């Protein structure tokens, strides 16, 4: 327990590791969090991590892309968030009237906060992002591995 700090925020446990290089985790527990000790929350968190580790160990490097025209994300009521239905997301980046980035997936417009929250479904995993022209988002781009010229970002 000396290695983590647990903060309760409503139905969520915010778990901060003493090591600043370890990401802060937010775990939705529900109303039962009020009855749980810090150790019980930590045990639940460790169970979640162990389950993720087991899934990673059993996972083949194959991802499922939802066919065009079918919903790529769905709203998960219990978690009060959007979740991906597959392992590939076709999306468009835009900005709102305040200049904040928004991500369009299917007919949904997600704020960066909501998009980031959706990504937490895959916390502990990696992802690759390929930026393509809006008309090419449904195609697999050719990827060339190289450093860009010095005058490019």
UniProtKB/TrEMBL annotation:
Residue ranges of domain DUF7713 in the record: 73-134
Instruction: Give the source's domain of life in one word.
Output: Bacteria
Pfam family of the protein (one): DUF7713
List the protein's name: DUF7713 domain-containing protein
Matching entries from InterPro entries are given as: DUF7713
């Amino acid at each position: 327990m000396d290695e983590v700090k647990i903060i309760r925020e409503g139905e969520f446990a915010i778990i901060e590791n003493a090591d600043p290089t370890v990401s802060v985790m937010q775990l939705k527990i529900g109303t039962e969090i009020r009855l749980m000790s810090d150790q019980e929350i930590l045990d639940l968190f460790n169970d979640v991590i162990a389950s993720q580790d087991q899934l990673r160990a059993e996972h083949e490097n194959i991802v499922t892309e939802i066919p065009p025209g079918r919903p790529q994300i769905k709203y998960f009521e219990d978690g009060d968030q959007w979740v991906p239905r597959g392992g590939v997301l076709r999306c468009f980046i835009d900005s709102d009237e305040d200049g904040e980035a928004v991500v369009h997936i299917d007919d949904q417009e997600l704020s960066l906060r909501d998009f980031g929250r959706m990504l937490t479904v895959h916390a502990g995993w990696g992802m690759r992002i390929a930026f393509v022209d809006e008309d090419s988002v449904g195609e697999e781009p050719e990827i060339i591995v190289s450093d860009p010229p010095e005058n490019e970002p």
